[in-house]
Amino acid sequence: MIDTETITVSLPARRVDTILNRCQALMCKSKEKIQEVTRVTGLLVAATPASELGRLHYRKLETAKIAALHQVNGDFDQFMVLVDDMKSDLHW
Questions:
Q1: What pTM was estimated for this model as a whole?
Q2: CA-to-CA distance for 83 and 13, rounded, in angstroms?
């Protein structure tokens, strides 16, 4: 949402809830399908205009996702391991 009085961009509450729920779900897992990781990073990428430091919250996860896709020949239905270093990107 764009507020022309304060010149700010923010996310609707429903979008924030979706992002938080998806991030929390990933943080509780040790592995997940690459497709779901892609969905979550997509939500984070879409939120970057409203979050000044948004890009910092998916960089490690995105790098690991790309590496996992290379290992499984681009099969998004395969699982990837989620290590604590990646999960730290999901705290916001």
A1: 0.83
A2: 29
